[in-house]
Amino acid sequence: MTTAIQEPAPQLEERARTTRVGDAVFSRTALGAALLVVALLAGVAIFLFIQGLPALDAHGEQAYGKSSVWTLVGPLLFGTVLSALLAMIIVTPLAIGLALVISHYAPRRLAKPVGYLVDLLAAVPSVVFGLWGIAVLAPRLTPFYEWLNSWFGWIPLFDGPVSGSGRTLLTASVVLALMALPIVTAILREIFAQTPTMHQEAALALGATRWEMIRLAVLPYARSGIVAALLLGLGRALGETMAVAMVLSATGAIISFDVISSANSNTIAASIANNYANAAGLKINVLIFAGLALFVLTFAVNFLGRWVATRGQVKA
């Protein structure tokens, strides 16, 4: 029989003391980092609130031709939400299909490179997306917009007249969809990969095809994760600035459901980017107030996405 070699008592005590010190340092460092993030977030919120509060008295020229700051921010919020929702309508089937291909359909030697390429899209600067949207995407979408207007002009979204430049809200939404695609796809493929193997094998053993297995085992398991991923992608699309500012030929703070004409609703981020350099006095406070509205909207969407994801993990 072999006997285990026990370390001397002083060495055991020294190792335990070192472990306790390391745990304490790591715990306090993690706590400090979390508190720092909360403090920075609170600081941004306080700054936006204090600097945006004077904008409540703005009107006329100070509010960019509107009777009050609310009549300015309201249409901008509408354009922001509309463009982001259109982007999510475009990205949802793409992200789900791409994530399923990477996690369940493509062979491993092909799935990994495809996953890396999708992740690399997140590293492309928004300015590059904006230039690509202006020079490549917008001119090529104009014939498609004309087709939409001729066949579906009875829908308010495609009422027209069609923009000759193609720099419309729908074009900006397509660019936003490509920018939100990496984060949504990355989250979805991790969620799909976490589906219990026993559930998938049981479905296949009962004679289900691969698609039936995905429909009956994978998608129900990942339902809350899909919602969370889409909400996080929505938060990404809501806050995008430069690409939208470059692609969108905005008319101003108007409410328009037409997404293929030159009379486009502007977004908050694009409006701030276009007007801040020439703003002075109370106009700066008006733009900061618009930034506060966007901050609250984005925070609420991201918080909802995190809550849905956490709730789904608890149920699982």
Entry keywords:
single chain; about 325 residues; mainly alpha; MetI-like fold; two-stranded parallel ribbon; about 0% strand; membrane; cell membrane
Could you describe the 3D structure shown?
- By secondary structure, this protein is mainly alpha-helical.
- The chain has a single domain (58-315), classed as MetI-like fold (Orthogonal Bundle), CATH 1.10.3720.10.
- The chain has helices spanning 9-52, 69-105, 108-120, 126-152, 169-193, 197-205, 210-221, 223-238, 242-247, 268-275, 282-315; strands at residues 250-252, 264-265.
- Strands 1-2 form a two-stranded parallel ribbon.
- The longest helix is centred in the N-terminal third of the chain and has 44 residues, at 9-52.
- It starts with 8 loop residues before the first helix and ends with a helix.
- The model has no long low-confidence stretch (mean pLDDT 84).
Report the CATH topology name: MetI-like fold
How are the strands ordered across the major sheet?
Answer: 1-2
Beta-strand residue percentage:
under 5%
User: Which residue ranges are poorly predicted, with pLDDT under 50 across at least 5 consecutive positions?
Assistant: none
Please, what is the oligomeric state? single chain
**Strand tally:** 2
Total number of domains: 1
CATH class descriptor name: Mainly Alpha
